[in-house]
Amino acid sequence: MNIYLDNAATTELTDSMKQYLISLLDQWGNPSSLYAMGERTGRILSGARQSVAAFINASPKDIYFTPSGSASNTLAIRGYYSMHPCTVLYSPIAHKSILNCAKSIPGSCPLKVDQEGFMNLEDLESRLMTASTQPFVVTDYANSEIGTMQDVEKLIELTHFYNGVIYLDCTGSIPSIPVDVRKLNADMIGFSAHKLGGLKGCGALYKRSSVTLAPLIYGSQESGLAAGTENILGIASLGKAAADHDYSSVSPTGRDYVYNRILHSIPNQYLVGAPVQSGNRLPHNLFLCFRGVEGESLLFLLDAYGIQVSTGSACDSKNMSGSAALSAIGMAPADIHSCIRMTFSGKENPKQLDYVCAALERCVAGLRDLHKGVI
Q1: pTM, whole model, 2 decimals?
Q2: Is residue 109 annotated as part of the catalytic site, yes or no?
Q3: Of residues 170, 315, 357, 363, which has the active-site annotation?
Q4: How far apart are CA 96 and CA 14, in angstroms?
């Protein structure tokens, strides 16, 4: 049996997506070319832009295609800072691309979060009030490791009250949580194709037309903001993924089934992030700490059973110093390396879920017994 529970890292291509992409393989023209072959790929590009715009209720002219979600994050942060005197205020549990970019900017400041990963709104307001230049708030909509969803409506309202600008990284949240940029009154958001069932190597950036950015790579494509001949297959896959995505099928049922069983069958474990029943946690996310168990060892044992999980963000999977997000929420250092993350597709059947639970019980018990034997 093979059960993939790392959908926050990437998602598989559906058969319809594969067939769609195969149908485009002969459309290899450069969309900037004026002859018919170029015009055909240009129409693919335009259609994808319209689909992505409709997906988030934006105008197509405000959608820019980038090489990845990380590229969207970097373009938004560095691009805005390069053109506007501003004070960057960032979430300390955001994606690594945000953390590394924000930390490279002079005067940037991490915001406070609590033990469940929620932004401290009093701290945010204090920082907004005392910023020496225009505040620029950068955060993820929801943390892709621990699953905690921010009160983005309140974050946007507060930021705008103090004449600030806000960027939301929606890469981890958009497969489960729809975004309406007009309703949110969002300044900028970014996300990637492969978290939605599209190809890797393509992202999207939305910015309201009044927001100006400096490019990171100079050229003519994407209105000069994301230069380089367009990745037509990647962009097409994002357009189709956006058009086909069905939020009505998103459900926490499988996640909650596994969690409730583990809660009663495996001792000395706890959930990291927002409670599963709070409504403030991504419905597909389960991040658990098993005390006395090395998370990477548990990952490899589960893989031997045909179950794929992670120990956190795929971008941090080879970082032995531990997750910045777990440190930021004040997790005990001894527990940081005792965690695994399971992110469900929602398509798992009861037999598969029971198999996952049984394998987890067996693997955790075996590793704890081994640890006792070593001691």
Answers
A1: 0.94
A2: no
A3: 315
A4: 28
